[in-house]
Input
Amino acid sequence: MFNYSAPAQLLKDKTILVTGAGDGIGRAAAITYAQAGATVILLGKTVQKLESVYDEIEALGAPKAAILPLNLESATEQNYIEMTNIIDAEFGVLDGLLHNASILGMRTPLENYDLVTWEQVMRVNASAPFYMTQALLPLLHLSSCASIVFTSSSVGVKGKAYWGAYGVSKFAIQGMMEILADELENTSNVRSNCINPGATRTAMRAAAYPGEQPESNPTPEQIMPLYLYLMGEDSAAENGRTFNAQD
Ligand code: NAP
Output
């Protein structure tokens, strides 16, 4: 596991947006960030799941979270403008952005890959992080030390059979992070890096590997040290890198 011991209240006074905050790794990250003192904006598709995370954060006595329902498959430019305006009015700044939401699509050869599913996966996994980053950069630039964290995967580093649009979208994420990091290097206080979570016990992992024993993989809570490191100021000098949460 990535070796990092976060100081208490590492993220005090920071405002951090987490996509896909209702389930799996995003849920654990949202709660972990709140426990470290951040005000977390919970963005996701299923409002009920976001409300449950909101309640859990409240019960922990952590800073009150905010809920931002958005379906990344259908979201329009206008939705992203409105999202930015809401965050601007409420907080005036954004210190962290965790691009975590994604969908698996189908595990099938490219030769047979369904075109509608292709578009859905590319939109949620690759286009949405671009639209959102572009919309939120003005608020990130207002932070003294902002962090954008993308979520990659080992199938987005080396192409593997039957990973289809998911694999292609993760190659796109890796490229987007590197381009952005290069553009922002030395010109702003915004850094940009990738996390490869590695096999983690979530609904997505179970769907991708139905024959696997879920207990053979760590829980989302266990991989949080890297998620904390990249959001906190101890990683201020990191830019353009991909980190493995389980190394
Ligand atoms: P997960 O349990 O399936 O959770 C995915 C999250 O994304 C859910 O909160 C889901 O919300 C949200 N989401 C999906 N479609 C959305 C949409 N259209 N609009 C808004 N939100 C949407 O997945 P996970 O395993 O935690 O994965 C988190 C990240 O890690 C992903 O980027 C994944 O590719 C990456 N990753 C995971 C593993 C692993 O082993 N788990 C390995 C490598 C990389 P709803 O529940 O409301 O649909």
